[in-house]
């Protein structure tokens, strides 16, 4: 039932032209506009929706609708843990994920490979990096940049209070 809900959101909010290429409207930056250097170079991928949520065309509407859930901070075992599990759950429509802590430099977060030959291509593999450890109380804010496989980008900034898990 939840899958049907996300499919309806993707269909209703999707932004692709008649050739299946995603429109850049609503993205914060293009692939050529790199305000901060990244060690990665990205290549666009075909935008042919197949209903498995493996393209930016399918994933972008979901990410826009769930922006407040992109990242979380948890105080655990004397540390702050940054969780990226929500983003990683929709990574198959992405080619990159970058983040900055407390207005520091943007860093690349490793994205696990998409499991395209399986019934659940977005399932998070057991060896995927889903969190990062920081000293307790050290995270005041996190900025996140998603690079979709159509090479559009979206950024969001989150204050600790808004993303701190109870």
Fold blueprint:
Layout: H1 2-13, H2 56-65, E1 72-76, E2 79-83, H3 85-88, E3 94-101, E4 107-108, E5 131-135, E6 141-148, E7 153-159, H4 160-163
Helix pairs in contact: 1-2
Structure description:
With 166 residues, the protein is an alpha+beta fold. It has one domain. It is 18% helix and 24% strand. It is built from 4 helices and 7 strands, in the order H-H-E-E-H-E-E-E-E-E-H. A 4-stranded antiparallel beta sheet has the order 4-3-6-7. A hairpin with a 2-residue loop joins strand 1 and strand 2 (79-83). Helix 1 crosses helix 2 (56-65). The radius of gyration is 16 Å and the shape is globular. The model is unreliable at 1-37 (pLDDT under 50).
